[in-house]
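Structure tokens please, single chain.
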Amino acid sequence: MVDESSSARESGTAGTSPAEAIHDRPTARIVLIAPDDRVLLFHWFEPSEGIHVWFTPGGGVQPGETYEDAARRELREETGVEAELGPWIWTREHLLTLRGVTERLLERFFVVHAPSNAVDTSGFDEFEASAISGHRWLSVREIAAWPDLVAPRRLADLLPPILRGEYPDPPIDAGV
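Here you go.
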């Protein structure tokens, strides 16, 4: 686990105030759709805040990668799924603070149709393996009624056209 001071040094924000410590983190996300039209969500629990969040697979774009490259890599690492990357459908920008470091996530969501409901999370890195406590395939109806926070919050409203194969062009803002 990276401590707060090394994270600040790596992001170039050492010695700045918390308000100045925010930096942009390009992030690729995958709306992974199973053959039964359920969508894969991961569960993250932050014990210090008591927050449960369910979110789509994905992660940061590494130096030299495009958003598309990162989406393919994250898909393999986090789910074990090898499938064709579909279109970029949504964007989302929000602040996230982890281990004392605040980042502005600049997310792009891509559609992927999974060949089955099989998921292999053995490619998680150490942080992901410790922070993500499970995953579920959920229908739109289940997402709309889910008791925990789902990200993006409008996911249940945004999914029906995507499941019908109606992709926005250009991509739309998914909100927080």
